[in-house]
Design a protein that fits this description.
It is built from 13 helices and 16 strands. It has 390 residues and is an alpha+beta fold. The protein folds into 2 domains: 210 residues, no CATH class; 92 residues, no CATH class.
């Protein structure tokens, strides 16, 4: 791994019994593309990351409620079998040569009740190490210097973040941002919002744009966003925040002919333009975010503009980890995407499998017999199935 990739990032994720993710082990790069057909489970993997973030930044109860309760997200084992525990294990590479592991498991007590069956966090640097362990809301290995009482719907990392040692783990996991941009949500009038960060569907894009434009030190990001959107949609010269009574929206200035320009509201813009704007806002929004995951960033965007989107995402991966999902051959064939950054997602007997490319697929790409996009078109972008399960 070159020095240009030495950013804090998730090196490996292990997930058990979350939606279609029965048992997966996924090694990630600073930029990773999850490739697979509709319904394979790409969105479930991204949502698992969002679920962990929500558990830490809000509470486990709220994270489950947002998704319909524990029975909606825990894999069903079958009648007569005991309920399964959902388990999440993260291996992180952080700043200053710090390596961390964070894991927890949630067990159902009834259709509506749950408990944190176990939780573990460890950090290792060159000359020091720290760890704690929790079982059934009680510390087995305590946190040095504090003796907190744990709430049943909160993870111990929340209180551990008050210490200098564990704060980097908490900050990384709670600053992950996952997106499934919905153009219809950018098009409609939006409720007032602080604009601290972009919502998952882009439903507060106007407020985020306003904060980006007005916050001190963000001028370059705003100007870059305008230039890049102009490269996606010809004629756009400016994007702005528009207040509309108690609501807010986004305004676009677009050149019409050689001598004049007109103002348009988001209501009049295409899905492709609005999705591209959502992706750009996810990347350039104010604040620091450890990871940005975007589902199908190229959807409804003209193939010629896909290259702009890919360049933006690869450039963003120099500063933070970036994950995308896709089933676009055109996106995979962009020259700067490497075969080692691809993970193949498939569904087998109701279970999602996530794996690196098979040796045969990698060899075909390296020998330039096929491009990744060509292999995807002929359904020969195959997975190394020995790598994706526990």
């Amino acid at each position: 791994m070159g020095t240009e990739t030495m950013i804090p990032y998730i090196h490996q994720v292990q997930i058990r019994n979350y939606k279609s993710l029965d048992q997966v082990v996924v090694n990630l790069e600073p930029f990773t593309a999850l490739v697979g057909p509709n319904g394979a489970g790409k969105s479930n993997f991204i949502d698992a990351l969002a679920f962990v973030k929500d558990c830490l930044s809000e509470s486990i109860e709220m994270a489950l409620k947002r998704r319909g309760g524990i029975t909606a997200v825990r894999r069903y084992r079958g009648k007569g079998f005991p309920p399964r525990q959902m388990e999440f294990i993260f291996h992180l590479v952080l700043k200053n040569d710090l390596k961390a592991q964070f894991s927890f498991a949630i067990a159902a007590q009834s259709p509506r009740k749950f408990r944190v069956a176990k939780e573990y966090c460890s950090l290792q640097a060159k000359n020091r190490s720290y760890n704690y362990e929790v079982r059934d809301s009680k510390f087995i290995k305590p946190i040095h210097g504090i003796n907190p009482k744990l709430k049943p719907d909160h993870l111990a990392l929340f209180v551990a973040s008050a210490t200098e040692e564990f704060q980097p783990v908490y900050e990384f996991l709670t600053s992950m941002r996952c997106y499934a941009i919905a153009p219809i949500r950018l098009r409609e009038l939006q409720d007032p919002d602080p604009g601290d960060y972009l919502q998952r569907d882009g439903s507060n894009a106007a407020a985020v744009l306003k904060r980006l434009k007005e916050a001190e030190g963000n001028g370059d990001r705003y100007e870059r966003l305008c230039r890049l959107l102009a490269a996606v949609t010809e004629g756009i010269t400016k994007i702005d925040y528009w207040p509309v009574g108690p609501k807010e929206t986004i305004g676009f200035k677009q050149e019409i002919g050689s001598a004049r320009s007109l103002d348009f509201g988001a209501l009049n813009m295409s899905d492709g333009t609005l999705r591209a704007l959502g992706v750009l806002l996810a990347v350039y929004q104010a604040g620091q975010h450890s990871l940005i995951a975007i589902e199908e960033p190229e959807a409804t965007v003209h193939p010629a503009a896909t290259e702009v989107i890919v360049e933006v995402l690869l450039d963003a991966a120099r500063q933070r980890q970036v994950l995308i999902t896709t089933h676009s051959p055109d996106l995979l064939d962009k020259k700067d995407i490497q075969e080692g950054q691809l993970r193949v997602v498939s569904m087998e007997k109701g279970k999602t499998l996530i794996s690196p490319l098979s040796p045969a697929s990698r060899e075909a790409i390296r020998k330039r017999l096929y491009t990744p996009g060509e292999l995807l078109r002929i359904d020969e972008l195959n997975a190394d199935l020995k790598s994706g399960t526990v």
